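Write out the 3D structure for:
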Amino acid sequence: MASTTTISKRRKAVADGVFYAELNEFFTRELAEEGYSGVEVRVTPTVTDIIIRATHTQEVLGEQGRRIRELTSLIQKRFKFPENSVSLYAAKVQNRGLCAVAQCESLRYKLLNGLAVRRACYGVLRFIMESGAKGCEVVVSGKLRAARAKSMKFTDGFMIHSGQPVRDFIDSATRHVLLRQGVLGIKVKIMRGSDPDGKAGPNKSLPDTVTIIEPKEEQPVLAPNSQDYGAKAITNIAPPAQEEAAAPIEAYEQPPPAASPAPQQQESSW
């Protein structure tokens, strides 16, 4: 990792991955009680910064920084870093309720202390959902009570299982508990929601999210007037001529025809 020989990009990528994997495995074993949840490596031309994320940062630092110096010296000798070319820092986990590694370690220590499996899992489940997660899943496998092994699954909320959103929204962790009756396997999956700031989750939404945009308020349309068309208002308009008064109905009634006179009989002279 610290060698200055020229290597290809493929070999460098493999070497960086092996370095990160070994570093993560070492801190997982060494800092399990301190709530270790991850490591970040930042490489610069002069120094390599290693940031340890944990829930109890004061215990990682140790008394007057003694433990962090011991870890720095150990890593420097193991990977053959030059003198004063590697630095270790401890960063506190902001929201441990959304960190699967921290909750997995918490459940592991609850089971080591003899707490019932169902009670311990429901406690972790409730704490995760109260921290703002959209969904969570806890699976405990092994010899729980009887001699035959079985699995118990506890779920709450909404959970996705396939596609690229799983890599973006799901945080998972796996741990093993060494008990007297055998080994228990613990798997914790937490689905985080979208956060514009990128702190409590990714700053993007799920692909199937439907956003309904409210229509804009339209202004009422006023009736057009003469000024809208550039016409001048006409004020002196003569009123319509009044129609002549109609004759009364009696004037249009015809009198009944007069009766014709009856023919007079002429007296015969004979």
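The CA atoms of residues 3 and 81 lie 8 Å apart.
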